[in-house]
Amino acid sequence: MAGTTNAFEMAQRQFDHVAELLKLDPQVREILRWPLREFSFRIPVKMDDGTIRMFQGFRVQHNDARGPNKGGIRFHPAETIDTVRALATWMTWKCAVVDIPLGGGKGGVIVDPATLSTGEKERLVRGWVDIMVRNVGPRQDVPAPDVGTTGQMMGWMMDEYSKLKGEYTPGFITGKPLGGGGSEGRTEATGFGVIYTVREAMKHLKLDPKKCSAAIQGFGNVAQYAAIGFIEILGGKVVCVSCWDRIDKTSYTFYKADGIDPRYLMSITDQYGTIDKEKAKAAGYKIEDGGEWIKKDVDVLIPAALEGQINADTAPLIRPSVKLIAEGANGPTTPEADTIIQSRGIFQVPDFLCNAGGVTVSYFEAVQNDMNFYWTKEEVHDKLDTKMTQAFGAVLDMSLKEKVNMRDAAYMVAIARVVKAMELRGWI
């Protein structure tokens, strides 16, 4: 996790700011500032050497006024309850801003998945389901993959849940593999969703994407497909990506002035997002310090790693050429950095709008599970494009109407929808 930034305090500060703008009733504000339910538990796992190891797990359900809670499960050695609270809160706003009938949830386990064997990972995720089975499900709370978890792990979790319930229940979890209840288009959904919002922002800013370049932080799933989309959908150039090296325990930026080839880099990246430095060097990439991505002379910055990466220390390093920041990660920009960015007139696509493509296609996956009828990849991409474009338009309209920045406008749209649902259900 990033430095000393407390993600939940940041999420609450962002909410409090917009609550003031909206003049929200203090009682309503208190409901929305905190999750409705939190679970903290220990998962016993039999390791390959026969020993029993205990893992700390979490699940936070922020608000389900608009529908079942929805959100991923992260496996990270520095996971905390406050990070999970923040991400669950942001999921509520994310689902609301793209207008899908779900609430916000998030889960986590304190573990470095790279240290576990395949069998140990399977036993750990099945153990997570064994403990949470009464409090999750298609009409309660629908998990999904996130940092450190995979589609295969979702498949194991769905199998465990189905066994415990005594019926095939694919809609319990999303992000499953194709052939196991998964949806076409889910793998690239978050990254492509980022690019659909970048495209709409460029239209607003009157930028020609074919003449624009981007620097991307990260090289996990979101960053990979954002890079592919920026090049293949928009026709632009990506000059760098960065990644965490699990061997060296540090991050690196992979830079190529004439543009990177994300598909090649994916071919030399392990399952945890670590790029092979020697093979990259041989292909002409310059290997730089992990923080160099933010200093590039580009038009677009796409932070697509962990939270708090653009902060009071790093925001001043952003070059004058940058016109657009598209937040592929959750909470990548601190409030202090927001102030700096806004003073410079840089247009931002806020995280819970920008990266909502993943949860949108997760919703599509659950719909297909319910119907037991599945769409083609083209249908999924088209529906995602429509949803993201409509959501961007609603936020931009609010921004222009209320004369506020895009983050505040996105919160205004999302909070108003959640409050309306709470009113309709008689909660307030």
UniProtKB/TrEMBL annotation:
Active site positions: 106 (proton donor)
Keywords assigned by UniProt, alphabetized: NAD, Nucleotide-binding, Oxidoreductase
A single BP term in Gene Ontology: L-glutamate catabolic process
InterPro entries: Aminoacid_DH-like_N_sf, Glu/Leu/Phe/Val/Trp_DH, Glu/Leu/Phe/Val/Trp_DH_C, Glu/Leu/Phe/Val/Trp_DH_dimer, Glu/Leu/Phe/Val_DH_AS, Glu_DH, NAD(P)-bd_dom_sf, NAD_bind_Glu_DH
Keyword Ribosomal protein among record annotations: no
Keyword Signal: no
Residues that coordinate or bind substrate: 70, 94, 362
Domain Glutamate/phenylalanine/leucine/valine/L-tryptophan dehydrogenase C-terminal: 183-426
Binding, NAD(+): 190, 221
Domain of life of the native organism: Bacteria
Pfam families in UniProt: ELFV_dehydrog, ELFV_dehydrog_N
SMART domains hit by this protein: ELFV_dehydrog
One example GO MF annotation: nucleotide binding
Site (Important for catalysis): 146
Homology family: Belongs to the Glu/Leu/Phe/Val dehydrogenases family.
Official protein name in the record: Glutamate dehydrogenase
Species in which this protein is naturally found: Longilinea arvoryzae
